[in-house]
Write a structure and sequence with these properties.
Layout: H1 2-7, H2 10-13, E1 14-21, E2 29-37, E3 40-49, H3 54-66, E4 84-87, H4 91-100, E5 105-108, H5 110-120
Parallel strand pairs: 1-4, 4-5
Antiparallel strand pairs: 1-2, 2-3
């Protein structure tokens, strides 16, 4: 994952973050942070939490950032992170990203937007 941060320019531009859960008895959530490349999505980071509350995700992102240095995100550094995050419509996830990366633009994922619209129908 370190090589992705320093060698793929897209890491400074855009990252996708999404959580999967209910894969174990404790209901832990697995968060993947990816960026895009010509080969598809490549990992920037991963963290596991016991829940998806804003406080928990914020602390997990801050801990993740403490592992990074100024060469992360193709030179933008851990403090700035990527310019754009693409997420689903999880309010707690989006608020945590605002807390940790206040200058980042948050966009909704088209897939999740269409999925929610289809469920509404």
């Amino acid at each position: 994952m370190r090589r992705v941060h320093i060698s793929i320019k897209h890491a400074e531009e855009m990252a996708f973050i999404d959580a999967s859960g209910n894969m174990d008895r404790q209901g832990c959530r697995v968060f993947l942070i990816l960026t895009h490349s010509c080969a598809g999505g490549v990992p920037l980071g991963i963290f596991i939490t016991t829940n998806e509350s804003t406080e928990t995700v914020t602390q997990a992102l801050e801990l993740y950032n403490s592992l990074l240095d100024e060469t992360s995100y193709f030179g933008r550094g851990a403090a700035l992170g990527p310019a754009v995050f693409i997420t689903d419509d999880s309010a707690s996830e989006r608020q945590a990203l605002k807390n940790v990366y206040p200058d980042a633009t948050l966009l909704l994922c088209v897939f999740h937007l269409l999925q929610a619209f289809w469920r509404f129908l």
